Amino acid sequence: MAIASCFACLGRPLLLDKDQDPVAVKTRKALAIMGYLGRMGGLTSPREALADLLWSSTDRHKAMQSLRQALRQLKTAEETAGIDVVRSSPGHVQLDQALFFSDLTRVLELVNRGNASDFREAEELWRGEFMSGYDDIDLEFSDWLTVERERVRSEVASAAFRHLNEISVDDEGAKVEAGGRFLLKMDPAFESAHRVLIRLYLKLGQRERAEQQLRTCEREMRLHLDAEPEEETKNLLQRDDAASDRHEGLQDTGDVKPIRGFLPNNEDVVRLPEISILSTSLSKKGLGDAVHLREEVVSGLSSFRSFDLYESQYFGDENAPKPTLVEGQELGSYLLRFRHDERSGKIVIQFEDRSNGQIVFNEIVDFSLWEGITPVASQIVSRIHMHATARLRNPSNTAVFARWCQAEALLWDFTKQSDEKAMRLLDDLERTHGSFSMTYAGKASIIMKQELHFPLLDRTISEGENNLLNLAEKSIMLDPWQAVNQRVYGWALILSNMPEEAKRAFHNAGRLSSADPANLMSVAEGLAFSGDVNEARATAQRAFSLFAFVPRVFYEYLANIYFAAEDYESAIKQIERGAGVGISGLTTRVAALVCAGREEEALQTLNRFGEHRASLLKHSPEMANDPHNWRLKINFFQDEKVRHDFDKGAALVQRFLFDGSGSV
Predict the structure, then answer these.
(1) 184 and 170 share a domain?
(2) 3-class secondary-structure state, position 309
(3) What span, in angstroms and rounded, lies between the C-alpha atoms of 422 and 411?
(4) CA pair distance 250, 198, nearest whole angstrom
(5) Distance of alpha carbon 379 from alpha carbon 389, whole angstroms
(6) Which of 79, 173, 261, 567 is the most exposed place for a label (fewest CB within 10 A)?
(7) Cα(238)–Cα(559) distance, rounded to whole angstroms?
(8) 257 belongs to a structural domain
(9) Of the residues 95, 125, 155, which one is the last residue of a structural domain?
(10) Same domain as 184, residue 116
(11) Are residues 222 and 283 in the same domain?
(12) What is the C-alpha separation between 375 and 544, in angstroms, rounded?
């Protein structure tokens, strides 16, 4: 297939026409849209995510207007170039996968193939950092770009090293030398690449070239890193070089160091369940809704960061996944089929377990029965996620991701015993896979839960809010694109009295996983506590529209959102539908009744709660001596007026808990 559009994103980004000539685009942000989409799964993104990323300092309405203007600029440039690669819908912006091509895509293809000529071509194509010169267009985009550049370099370097794990001189060392030179084009101070070349030259008997390469390594590391090569590198020339390298090559994986700390260690790679996606009869005209549904489902699955997804289009028809049982994949291997039924006009979605041939579900989608595509996609994604993770919650499954699924399930139990079991699992994960980011989000979640839902119970882990913030920050540093990490980070910031920073984290979490209603409900409650009430209500409304079944705990979240909006009657109604007895829910109910002028009912509620008072206090005698501190801890609202209103109810609950039912 001929390339209809090319995007140069290595070095300074350019839109190229069919003849590979640059085409002028009016603003950098318009080009940044293509750079961002080119790194997204399915080459697609919600419009809101793009607006928040590139116009983060303006309100949502103005940001969406600016996005529309930038898309018009891209369309004008495309008309000049004679191409049509950017596709817009009311909810999403997407690049046509059949027409879009970038120099980064080509580099990855070349290094994955890994011949000497491939490495040389990749070296010519590497013109600098991903989207160089775009750091200053927006603070949010700059944050994304910083992490994405390291991700690009890790992907490329990891692919290259798969061909350099052994020093081969069958071709006079041409492939290894070309690979090493390519890696040094990426990063002149990359010590592991210098080692590859030193070992190669020693194996070829070219000691002078090896010595020269060591001097080059020393010079580049001093210049770029203000550092010296490790002793291991310097000692390469002092060994019985030829004999040693014939046997060792690069078998010692400890010799492959990260590119400035970001190349993943193979021991830390966490395998995930596999899903192969097969689409048939969706490329015909008039099937826009069907294609949109598929992209929504794929985007939703990708946002969970819980699956290794494979598009069958990359394999070609002859290599597409066959109806063959897959053995040995303990995490699960699945096939997701999309098919358009021409007779009925409906979309058939079939999810199959390739380990046993079971059809997990077969959904026939009639769009006339649904209010939009998003709810359909969300419920399909939820069904897939629930099935794939439920089987991993069996304690007999000891894979890393399975143990995380087991810990996550315990976190939703909302009991001290479950928290303790989850903490043991997370401690074990931290010892064996210290770079798995959700371990730290899980630990932070336990602290947050204890502060929010069980403020009177003994702590499972110590240091309170400080430890919470440290753990949440570590999860973000390891993986800022994981929604649960951003969400827990937002809660850590709430408990650290940093509402503006918390809003940003919650917005990030909502954007990263917009098809997960549970994520959206937690985000909505966090936004309400942060003071962004309108967005909290809108987010909660989106979440409820996606639920197939609403867990009772989310009505308690909704009650807090209504309380933040000063809609006390609705808050009372929702808390009565909540999950049951809990100190946080009790305080919200009492505060809402007091603020609604129903103080007598508030007192009656406390009296009915009397049988639980002793069980709450006996776990924490030190808290009984500090009722004022408890009252501060239970109030998470950051808006001054809402905080004051909530404190009216908290004062009553405080007297009830610490002075007895006769005091209220």
Answers:
(1) yes
(2) strand
(3) 7
(4) 12
(5) 15
(6) 261
(7) 71
(8) yes
(9) 125
(10) no
(11) no
(12) 10
121 and 11 co-located in one domain: yes
Residues 20 and 107 in one domain: yes
CA pair distance 27, 46, nearest whole angstrom: 21
Among 268, 272, 258, which Cα is nearest to 161's? 258
Q: Which domain holds residue 564?
A: 551-664
Q: What is the pLDDT of residues 319-375, one digit of tens each?
A: 555 566 666 578 999 999 998 887 888 899 999 998 888 999 999 999 888 888 989
Distance in angstroms (rounded) separating the CA atoms of residues 103 and 38: 11
* pLDDT tens-digit series, residues 374-407: 899 999 999 999 999 998 998 888 889 999 999 9
DSSP-assigned beta bridge partners for residue 309: 275
Domain holding 354: CATH number? 3.40.50
CB atoms near residue 267 (< 10 Å):
11
Number of domains in the chain: 4
List 661's β-bridge partners, or say none. none
* Cβ–Cβ under 8 Å, residues 560 and 571: yes
Residue 129 backbone class (left: φ over 0; alpha: ψ -120 to 50; beta: rest): beta
Sheet of 86-88, strand order: 44-46, 92-95, 86-88
Q: Within this chain, do residues 276 and 198 fall inside the same structural domain, yes or no?
A: no
pTM of the model: 0.58
Q: At what angle do helices 438-452 and 464-478 cross, to 10 degrees?
A: 150
**No. of helices (H) and no. of strands (E), the chain:** 29, 11
Please name the amino acid found at residue 159: A
Q: Give 69-91 as a DSSP string.
A: HHHHHHHHHHHHHT---EEE-SS
Rounded distance between C-alpha atoms, residue 238 and residue 658, angstroms: 74
